[in-house]
């Protein structure tokens, strides 16, 4: 049994904490005292059915604190899962929170292995090792989906550890043993290669979203049946029928920032495709907004701001980009989002009552179709063909 600290109680941190606390002593460190209290009370501060059920029903060796000294005392591993938001001014991830954790751990518990799961620029981990003059830092990317983070931790598609060594294998074995998918493939790489794996994987997913969105744009402009085209294209087994549902663009916490960070890493490398993926997302939102405006609505309702079903995250959701474009063209925009308990969102009225929202809205914009809108289907604007987040 190991002693493990996890810095950050968000999706990644809490999913790893719950998974590992089934067999190890785990302490979550978070600056949000309300989040700390929730974890200690065995309630989930984030929307994830698996995490909620495990906190409620499973015996876990888990506690949370806001005291770094308490969290790091005598631990074997520190997993870093703090946010690395994209900073448009520097054209890079803001990695300050990761650096702070690494500095603290190096000072308080220098023998602990620091495992970075926060997404970072290519080359960051080895640079940080040089800066802190320590070899005890490894990058191990996460591949979790919002709303199913614990499920994806327990049943990993792959485990990647950025170190070719017995220590790297031991870390991989620790993660594999905590999972319920003991046959998951394990890959030991260099830290820099592991960082690149994370960014290229997410950029490929963004490219796939962008491809099917541009297919849909073409079909819409030329009055073709998008679904027939997608069904036919996806019969090719090399392409497959996954991740092919048109949307308003890729969004959420990971894909927008990861594609931009990868593009920044290409600053001295010839490329065309990575820039096109980033630009395609902007073009898609432009098309969606223009397509809505062709209906000449005076009031447009935005039904749900969350990126996907089962998530409580609005960050960088694609519908917000559409919303901003409509407002810039002088259209009144109202919002229905049950997770919002404020009178306005970016100066748009929030309407809590669904019936009133339907009545007030001349066009209802919904990234994914919802049964709650079935009675006003003639008002609904969506590019959703398959009714799933895929």
TrEMBL record:
Enzyme class: oxidoreductase
InterPro entries documented for this protein: 6-PGluconate_DH-like_C_sf (IPR008927), 6PGD_dom2 (IPR013328), NAD(P)-bd_dom_sf (IPR036291), UDP-Glc/GDP-Man (IPR017476), UDP-Glc/GDP-Man_DH_C (IPR014027), UDP-Glc/GDP-Man_DH_C_sf (IPR036220), UDP-Glc/GDP-Man_DH_dimer (IPR014026), UDP-Glc/GDP-Man_DH_N (IPR001732)
EC number(s) reported in the record: 1.1.1.22
Keyword NAD recorded: yes
Keywords linked to the UniProt accession: NAD, Oxidoreductase
Gene3D superfamilies membership: N-(1-d-carboxylethyl)-l-norvaline Dehydrogenase, domain 2, NAD(P)-binding Rossmann-like Domain
Annotated ranges, domain UDP-glucose/GDP-mannose dehydrogenase C-terminal: 301-388
Keyword Oxidoreductase assigned: yes
SUPFAM superfamilies according to UniProt: 6-phosphogluconate dehydrogenase C-terminal domain-like, NAD(P)-binding Rossmann-fold domains, UDP-glucose/GDP-mannose dehydrogenase C-terminal domain
Reactions performed catalytically: UDP-alpha-D-glucose + 2 NAD(+) + H2O = UDP-alpha-D-glucuronate + 2 NADH + 3 H(+)
Stated name of the protein: UDP-glucose 6-dehydrogenase
